[in-house]
Structure formats: C-alpha cells, structure tokens
Amino acid sequence: MPATPKTMDAIVALCRRRGFIWQSSEIYGGINGFWDYGPLGAELKKNLKDAWWHDIVRCPGKGPDGHFIDMVGVDCTIIMHPKVWEASGHVAGFNDPMVDDKETKDRFRADHLWGLIITDAPGDAAFDLKMTVASMLRNGYTVVHYSFVAGSLGEVTDYVKTNPKELREFGKVDGDIVPHPFGVAVPYPKGKCGLIFPISVDEQKIHYLELPSPFTGKRGTLTEPRQFNLMFESHAGPIKDEANKVYLRPETAQGIFTQFWNVVDTSRVKVPFGIAQIGKAFRNEVTPRNFTFRSREFEQMEIEFFIRPEKANEWYKFWRDSRFAWWQSVGLAGENLQLREHDRDELAHYAKEGAGTSDIEYRFPFTAPGYGELEGVAHRTDFDLRQHANTCGKGDKLKYFDQELQVKLQNEGASKDEINAKSRYFPHVIEPSAGADRGTLALLCEAFTPDETRPSGVYMKFQPRIAPIKAGIFPLVNKDGMPEIAEKLYLELRQSWCVQFDEKQTIGKRYARMDEAGTPYCFTVDGETAGTQTVTVRHRDTQQQERVGLDKVGAFLKEKMSM
Ligand code: ATP
Q1: For 8-78+249-382+431-445, which CATH superfamily applies?
Q2: Which whole number is the average pLDDT over 295-313?
Q3: Across-strand partners of 226?
Q4: For ligand 1, is residue 250 a contact (CB within 6 Å)?
Q5: Whole-angstrom Cα distance, residue 349 to residue 379?
Q6: pTM for this structure?
Q7: Higher pLDDT residue, 427 or 215?
Q8: Could you tell me which of 393, 276, 403, 326 has the C-alpha nearest to residue 48?
Q9: Which atom of ligand 1 approaches the CA of 288 most closely?
C-alpha cells in the first residue's frame, strides 16, 4: 500500500473510520460545531486529561521558589449566577465581529478576512508598505489581481494552492508559501508574486461597501462588521424571562475565581498556590470550523495560580516554560509546537498591565504554515478577584490575608500601617488555560504517520502513556490452549490498563488494526508459550518482535507507560 499522505482529509477519515471522532447527531446530518468522541477518541482524550490532572494537581514539581507547588482541584457548575458574567466582563465584551453577505446569507468572522494581491514585480520586495484595503483599492501597486478570502490563514493558503479557477491564469503556486511581515508571500511563475494579508476590522468598517464579497466577488453585498456575543443563553426555571436568564459558561476560569475564598478557608493553601479545573465550556462561535479546533462545545483544562503581585514575572515565565515542556512530554516534541509571546496590542483587557501573555501553538495541517493556539498563558493581574469582590458588594473585605508576609514585615521592623497595607491584598493570577479538544486533535495530527509498509499506508504513533489502547493480547490460533493463556493475561492486564483481546482474523490483520488505533505493543501467545512461558511482543513503530516472559508482561508495560 502506498503511504497515505498526511492531509487533514486523511486524518478526519481515519478518525471517523476507526471511531476516534464523529459528528454529533450524525444520523440527522450533524450539527455544526459539535463533535462526539468514539471508543478510541474517548480513551485518548481521557488519557490527555488524566495526564494533565496527574502532573498538575496530584504530582506537581517545584516552582521557581524551590518549593513544591501547592495545587488543588475543583469541579464547578456550567451554569452560574448571571452576575458572574457581568463581573467578568463577558456580558459586555465577549464578542466576535461578524459580517454577513446579504445576498448569499453566508457569514464570516470579520477578523478572519484576508486579501490576496498579485503583482507582476517578482519577489516579496514589491510589498514594501503595510497592505491596507485602502491601498489595494487605490491600486497603488502594479496589481494584476486581487480577491478576498474568508477563513484561517491555513485555509486561505490551501485555497490558493489548489489553483482555483479565478487564479488559473497566473499558473500554479511555484515554490514555498513563506511567512512575510504582513502575511504570507505566494510565489507564482513568470515573475509574479502574491501576498495574502489580513484586513483589519477597522478597515472593513470604513470600506465594507467597496469590498468584494469573499463568496461571490460582488461589491456592496457585505454588511458592516457588528459585534456578536458568544455566550449561549438559557433560562433557569419554568419562566423564560430576563430575570431567569442564565449563560452556559464560556470558560471554566470563573468557577475557580468565585470559589477562591472557599478554597482558602477550607484547604490550608497559602499564596502562592493554584486551583485547577477540567470542564466543559461553550461558545457560540460565528464560524465553527477545522474539525474540533473551533467547536461550540469543548473542554478546557485551566489553572489559576495565585501569587503576590511582585512575583508575577517569575511565575509567568515559570508557567509559560513548564506548560510548553508538558506538551512536549505528552508527544508534541517536534517542530510543530511553538511558543509565541503576544505583542502588547493583542492583549486582553485584563492583561495589558501584566507580565505578559503567550500562546503555546501547534502547526495543524489546516493552519500550516501558520500555527493554532493550544493553550494560552496569561498574567490576569488581580482583575477577576477584584471584580467579583466589588460586584458582590464585599469589596476590600475579601482581600487575602498573607500571614507569612505579615510576620516577615514585622521582623523587618515595618510600621503597623505598612504591615496592614501590604499583608492584605488581592492576589495576582497567572492563568495557563488549555483546550482538551485542541490538545487531542494535535495529538491525532502528530501521531498520523504515513508508512508504505502498513496495510492502510498509515499508523498512529501515540506516546504509550497517551495511546488509547496500551496493548493487544492475541492467541496466535484458537486452539492448543492458546486462547486460555491469552485470556488470563488479558484479565490480569486490564486491571491496570486499557488493553484489548482479539482472537479474530489473521495475526497480520490484527496488527494492522492495532497500528491504526496507535497501540504501542501487541502480545501474542503462540505455540512456544506453554513450554517456555514466554509470549512475543511486537513493537508498533519498528514492527520488530522479541520474546518476553509471561510473568514479566505487566512489568514491561509499566516501565513503558512511565517513559
Ligand atoms: P481562539 O483565539 O482560537 O478563539 P481563545 O484565545 O479565545 O482561542 P481562550 O479563551 O484562551 O481561547 O481559551 C483557552 C483554550 O480553550 C484555547 O487555548 C483553546 O485550546 C480552547 N478553546 C477556546 N475556544 C475553543 C473552541 N471554540 N473550540 C475548541 N477549543 C477552544
């Protein structure tokens, strides 16, 4: 079988065929932005979340202060008091700009609109000014073509690469599409060069009547960009009126902030410490797309780490770097993972004054050559705690009392007023906020390994700790006592791991199924087993086999899972 090229279509097809991910409500034609995990996907995502909970909550390492990190977990509700979302700023500000094509009824996010300009000057030297719609409309360049495309940068570059009808006269893209200070540069044959560049929402507000629709190319059919709140609404109780309006949480963080005081009162934690949570979040995304990457229902793995304000820089750097290393440790070790520090003008309202914000990003097939966010690490200052303290009316009474700091200041001879002022404060927060679904998708993309020696031209190279099935247990044939030995081994191993017993079809077909599921090891009970008390173990990646003692299989797997 020729190797299956690593494309998003091939990854989605494998996910569907093998039961990793399906469309929600598929028998009714699906529902946009909602996805279900099948048996393999549910195990994979659970393994990712379990690894996170284990490494973050149960067994965190040491912080920059040399002490073991103090971390506790919570599990809060999806629906909370509506005031929570007023205090957090989500009712007023959790918006995306949206544009409609009045004629076709198509819709896109205004911050996802790109222009494509092609000039007959070769090389990207032609684009020496920041592209703006106005400059394009003025035709300040030797423009031989321009059009507008909506989507992610990866989708737009894919679109250009497929040589669509309106671009055919320029020939096929001739070389690599490379990052450019204003977007990405697209080389065309015969000395032409293209540039794909973002069109800002502000510019669209001015020029929307002159902009050609990305769907039809016609002018005058687009609406002005307008804000659209992403929170799903519902009503608690039988009466559907404004007073009973509630929201499905758009982030898990606010559950943590509102329970901060209960955690402090009941858990003996002291600043610096963290509260972690895994849970569902909901966002009514304008254009859900790219498989599970932008869903309307998804799961987050969030940490709110509470610190003294003056320690923000060191803790921010610590979490940024240790979260990056964690993603590497679960199997995203290659060059598809990157850490990107935000520019100041990209920062959220609460982070402007902070130590920084960065994204841990993965190069998905649909974002390449660009990257998509897996996790954001932000210094949220004391914004959220202060907001909740003020909105609930208790204000400064909810300041955290730092006894250790009080003692330290007393020992340093500080005045009473100074001690009082300094030892009561709202802690600052460093927030590493990760997506479990985007993480699972990145693991699937990374694991997809084209290989012509496998029957379906591909195998899934998951790290053993993350793999949905840890081992296949097979009797070579269904006679001579082999099934009984294999069954006994299976019953023993399944107490500790997700393993699968399979006695059907040829051994080659069984290996092939396990390769597509990403199972790292297969143990086969064969004709020698009864005599030598050994089984063969077949390694997924090398396809090599060796013999291992029947009584050593458990220890073998244990060692591999901890690697
Ligand atoms: P984006 O800019 O891609 O919309 P964001 O910056 O709004 O993401 P955050 O609010 O920082 O995302 O949420 C933290 C994490 O939650 C993200 O890094 C991502 O992994 C995940 N996440 C956010 N929105 C979605 C979504 N619509 N579908 C799946 N995962 C999501």
Answers
A1: Bira Bifunctional Protein; Domain 2 (3.30.930.10)
A2: 96
A3: 98
A4: no
A5: 11
A6: 0.85
A7: 427
A8: 326
A9: 27
